[in-house]
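Before going further, learn to read the protein records used in this course. The integers have meaning only within a learned vocabulary of local backbone shapes. To see the layout at work, look at the sequence and tokens printed below.
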Amino acid sequence: MGEMRIMKDFRDIPIELELQVKEYEQVLLSLNKTLNNQCSDIRKEDVMGLEESINQIKKGIDRLKNLQISIAAFGETNAGKSALLNSLIGHSNEDPHAPFKVHERINIWSKEIECKNGVKWHDFNNLELILYDTPGIGGDILEHLDIAKKIASESDIILYVVWLTVRGDLQKAVMKELLETEKPLIVVINKVDTQREIEIKATKDDIQEKMGIKESCFVLAAGHPKQGEPIIEDLTENIFSIIKKQNFDLINKTIQSWVNKGVIINNIIADEVEIAREARKQKAAIIIHSAASAASLLAGLLAQGATFGADTPFLTVITIGMIVALGTLFDKKITKTAATAVISQNFGAFAGVALAKAILGWIPILGNFANASITFGLHEATGWACYLIFEDNRDISKLSEDEFKRYKIRAENMEKPNTSWIKTLPSHIKIQYDSLVRKLADKNVSDDERQGILKEIEKLTEPYRKDKSDVRNGLS
């Protein structure tokens, strides 16, 4: 706002506004929570849109607390907006202290001009009326359209200043955008002291025909007449009439438009988060299933003739590879040491299974099957427990055995993606998948190669996974 802004104490506003402010502040808390919890899967434009909505709602709340009405003047280059605004606050263009300067820079859209030109005009109905000038819309600079939309969205009352018929597609596009804001609009036919009545009528008819604006929206004015006093009485009366009818609801409507936009974006982000979570869960499912399949394959081969725990070193490298790959899904760099610590800290669970495997391993055929089945279940449970740990953003290397057990219980009870579709893969894809699982079970494969195999499996099966990642396209 400009230098003439006067702050009011929150206690001075009516009780209904105080309650409204608190409602808006609750909305801000919700939107900020979404912004602070955003993940890397969220589209940048949605994050930027939410940030903009939050900032605009904050500005609106500040204006509501201070009972400030924002009035912005738009129009073509040389329409006389600055002179008109100066005359409203009692200054002529020649006055060195006139707040709205008329010079060549005013036709340049800049952040500095946008932010610094708010000037207090009046105290009316316990409201402060703040005037904003905007650089002239001229030529075919499309950037003007975006900036006009932005300033209009922040304003409570819009003045569109003209002095000739509407020229060019850009001017029509800007007027269309201003109308679509559904803010109170006053079309000011300016410089009427230099025009004949027939010319003024032609301008009004032209705008009405092209834009469909009602007769009641037009006023005649001369902000800087060649002779005599400025002609601004009708304009002033029209502005005051709007404020009398709508009062601080004018500010509320502006804030509410940003609240609505923020809520829409917030819902889109919530959908995106759920889509990303589902896609990540499906990727985790293929990693866990493939690692468990490789481990059970290896365990079955090693079952008979194995001494107690003989297969453990070989199975451990598969478990470690699975944990590291799951961490990568959550942008976590899990070292081999950290993954090994998970197995070491939770040796109780692994040891019990290992003992059962060792006993069953001596039973022909049944031993092979049981050993493989137990190993598959162990890796599934461990994989999904690690998935939940990463999803909760916990440091897996610092979990106690009891905490890990609780995660395993959660993993047992959670709804897991159905991986039965792997069995129905096209035959040539299934052959490649089975080959990669066998490679994963190869005792001679290095840690880096094992990560590469898991990534290859993920890429191979991606077109056939039953996730919802394609829904993202429907959110825009």
Q: What stands out?
A: The longest strand covers residues 68-75. Residues 68-247 form a domain with the Rossmann fold fold (CATH 3.40.50.300). Strands lie at 68-75, 119-124, 127-132, 157-162, 185-189, 218-220.
